Records
---
Amino acid sequence: MRLVKSGKVKDVYEVNDGELEFRFSDRISVFDKIIPSEIPHKGETLARTGAYWFGIAEKLGISTHYIGLIAPNRMRVKRVKIISDYSLLTPRTTSYLIPLECITRYFVYGSLWDRVCQGTIKPEKLGFPSNHKIRLAEELPQPFFELTTKLEKIDRKLTTEEALKISGLTLDEYEQMKDMALTIDEAINSRVRQRGLIHADGKKEFAFDESRNLMVVDTFGTADEDRFWDMKEFGEGRCVERSKEFVRQYYRRIGYYDELMKTRKEGGEDPPIPPLPESIVQQTSQIYITLFEDLTGQRFR
């Protein structure tokens, strides 16, 4: 098969005119940087978790590009086009990847907390009263939905108007996409709470099929795309990470994240990201394996 793209996490191969194969690697990335360390068994957990959630989505009546797993770390999917010039899209264009990442947040954490501390996002924007003092890891009164770019080197936040302009979506299609993301999350949230987990936030991607019907693509509900916490620990006031956020927090602790953000703000070249210590590699691998088992109810081995 012809290699179409080697991404941060997976390699994409052309099977035929209508199908692609995703091969999930053990690579790991944070802050749009590939870390020079691999996480044992990570690729397999992503592929198998993704397959599980695609099955749930289809039971909800949501279309997906998923065809099936052909190996523990290899997934066949329907092929969609990546458009070279999205400005040429019309409301009749079909079978293409929508160049947006849809993010739904349920707690104030991560980059959302950063923006709260910086004063760039106000309490009322998140559904709180204007005089509310927001706390770290506080549950939001309503889901917070936002969009970022998908195909740019570094993801950037988009307004609804910007998103419609670069994606070729109509307003009705945008609302349908948002509803689909929230419907999937309702299923994720209800299931993981029964398994002792909290779903703090997540990311999804969409495409149009050959009839311009929306379908969810890539993967979702995994340790890479979503943030999960241990429910018991959260009830005692601690956010114990059960996702890739564990790795992000490591780079925050050692100061790399602050250095990276400062450099990007000044327009400089990103500093190289250091490899992970072996102890963090092994802990991360176990997080991915255990989360797969807790989410799916399946044994990894």
Note: The CA atoms of residues 40 and 128 lie 42 Å apart.
---
Amino acid sequence: MHRAVVAIVFVFACATAADAAEVKILTAGAMKAVVLELVPQFEKETGHKLVVDNDTAGGLAKRIEGNELFDVAVITPGVIDDLATKKKVAADSRANVARVGVGVVVKEGAPLPDISTVDAFKRALLAAKSVAYIDPASGGSSGIYLAGLFDKLGIAAEIKPKAKLKRGGYVAELIANGEAELGLHQISEILPVKGVKLVGPLPAEIQNYTTYVVVAGAEAKQPDAARALIKLLTGPAAESVLRARGMERPPS
């Protein structure tokens, strides 16, 4: 009898292990930290292992266009729109997840520049010895926006020689280690870095929100698990995680 029970338990364990699978999610920029915090809940609820892979929005677009397989992706709307026309995503799974604005960061203990108005923001940029932001060439949405903003404000020529460009990752790390005096990045990418201080968001007139959209892959290996993950990301469990990282739900 004892051997029979052991055998049943062993068979059940093997079946459970066989049902478990790796679920791959591709995340752009700021969404990585949110997804990582929700990993334990997802794995507990589904029994699957969640594999998180992060890159810039542009980097993910190139990878997916190159036929990289994935179950879920969280990227910017424009990228998702383009991938949908190429039949790379399951259009009926699409949902808005979050949005985040761009903020200004300095080293902890440094004087906080005035960025309360557009003119004050311009003066702060021009006064800084160095300005760090994501390299637009890497495909990062904040870097692309800022490059255009500097042109619009008429200060691109002044910023260029003192720009410290980062190809993905946390711009605030350049501030923390002293490589740059002032940094510009999505607020959710500033808050996790130690040794820096968030000065505040860009003035409302020039603020740029990056919206993140979640979608299942057109050829997802785990379509049911993909839907479960999308439900988790768009449900109430993710609300507090988003707020803690300076993000919010997009307006309806």
Note: The chain has a mean pLDDT of 91.
